[in-house]
UniProtKB/TrEMBL annotation:
PANTHER family: REVERSE TRANSCRIPTASE DOMAIN-CONTAINING PROTEIN (PTHR47027), REVERSE TRANSCRIPTASE-LIKE PROTEIN WITH RNA-DIRECTED DNA POLYMERASE DOMAIN (PTHR47027:SF20). It comes from Ridgeia piscesae. This is Reverse transcriptase domain-containing protein.
Length: 120
C-alpha cells in the first residue's frame, strides 16, 4: 500500500496537487497474508488509522461487516417514512397508488441506496 501511495503522491505533485493528510485516512482490513496493521506515510507524515469511515453515504468498516450499515439505512428509511406521515400518509386526497409510488421513490430508495455494493 505504501508503494502505491508514494507513486500516487509523486504523480499528483507533477500536476501541482498535494494529498491532504488531514482528510486522508487509512482503513486496515486484515486477510490471510496481512495480519498486522502497517503505518502508511505521506511526505513523512503518518496517516490516521480508523476502524470505519463513511464514503458517499455508505459506512465501510475494517471487519467488512455490514450490520451497522444496514442499521443506519433502516434508521434513515424510518425517518423518511416518518417525515411523510403528516403530509402524505394521513392525507385522504392522495390515492393509494400515488402513496405507493412515493413510498418506493423515497423510503425504499433510502433503504436500499448502495445495496448492490453490500458484502455478505
Amino acid at each position: 500500500m505504501q508503494k502505491i501511495l508514494d507513486a500516487f503522491s509523486d504523480a499528483s505533485k507533477k500536476f501541482g496537487l498535494k494529498i491532504n493528510i488531514k482528510k486522508t485516512e487509512v482503513l486496515y482490513q486484515p486477510n490471510s497474508t496481512r495480519t498486522r496493521e502497517e503505518d502508511i506515510m505521506v511526505d513523512g507524515n503518518k496517516l490516521n488509522s480508523v476502524l470505519e469511515f463513511t464514503y458517499l453515504g455508505r459506512t465501510i468498516s475494517s471487519n467488512g461487516c455490514i450490520d451497522d450499515e444496514i442499521q443506519r439505512r433502516m434508521a434513515r428509511a424510518r425517518a423518511s417514512f416518518g417525515r411523510l406521515r403528516q403530509r402524505l400518509w394521513t392525507n385522504h386526497h392522495v390515492s393509494l397508488r400515488v402513496k405507493g409510488k412515493i413510498y418506493r421513490a423515497i423510503v425504499l430508495s433510502t433503504l436500499l441506496y448502495g445495496a448492490e455494493a453490500w458484502t455478505g
